[in-house]
Amino acid sequence: MPRPKRSFSPEGIYHVIARGNRRQPIFLGDPDCRLFLEIVRRVVVERQWTVHSYCLMPNHYHMLLETPAGDLSAGMRELNGAYAQWFNRLHGFAGHVFQGRFKAILVASDWHLLELARYLATNPSRAGLCDSPALWQWSSYPWVITRSAQGFAPSNKLLSFFGTDEASARDAMRRFIEDE
Fold first, then answer.
1. Helix or strand or coil: residue 110?
2. Could you tell me which of 88, 103, 24, 89 has the C-alpha nearest to residue 57?
3. 17 and 103 in contact (C-beta within 8 Å)?
4. 23: which DSSP letter?
């Protein structure tokens, strides 16, 4: 029996999570992360999505996504499918890269969005992968506070919650994230 089709609201912002099959690594090094973010960038541009935040961890990733057309399932199938094919071909693997379907949780409010942004930014330091959220290059957080990181620039929505002056908004967001 096929799985039921999921529907996603065009106005919604979603916390999207995809984990490696059997919680195994899906990123074996920096080239994997760079390629994944390039595929994300391509899908985001083609589908006119907005990425508010992202964080790549060794065995999973998180994104805060807005999909104006409500085409989250189709885009995620494209993203995860393209990455899985590349990953298996490059590393000589076969079979599933991702564990089941991606998870997508509707963001309930602006406060929920900010708390999720903090969770994504601090995930690598809480896992012991770096000393500070600003040092994890595979997250959008360093870009937001310093304008220098790998990957691509997220939207300015999160920064806008902290003020209109960009420098002081960056500093306020940094305090919000790092002084939890």
1. helix
2. 24
3. yes
4. G
- Cβ neighbourhood burial of 168 (10 Å; 0-12, 13-18, 19+): exposed
HSE-CB at 146 with a 13 A cutoff on CA atoms is: 12
Residue with tokens 């964080």: 55
Task: Tell me 102's DSSP state.
Answer: P
Contact 113, 64 (CB under 8 A): yes
Whole-angstrom distance, CA of residue 70 vs CA of residue 114: 22
CB 161 within 8 A of CB 114: yes
**Which segments of 45-109 are extended strands (E)?**
50-57, 60-66, 103-106
Summarize pLDDT for 7-29 with one digit per residue, the tens. 677 888 999 999 999 999 999 99
| DSSP β-bridge partners for residue 50 | 66
Q: Can you read off the two tokens belonging to residue 54?
A: 């992202």
Between 23-27, 39-43, 55-59, 148-152, the lowest mean confidence (pLDDT) is in 148-152
- Distance, CA of 113 to CA of 101 (rounded, Å): 22
Quick: pLDDT tens for 95-145. 999 999 999 999 999 999 999 999 999 999 999 999 999 999 999 999 888
Q: From CA 43, how far away is CA 76, in angstroms rounded? A: 9
- Sorted by where each starts, the structural domains of the chain and their CATH numbers stand as 13-178 (3.30.70.1290)
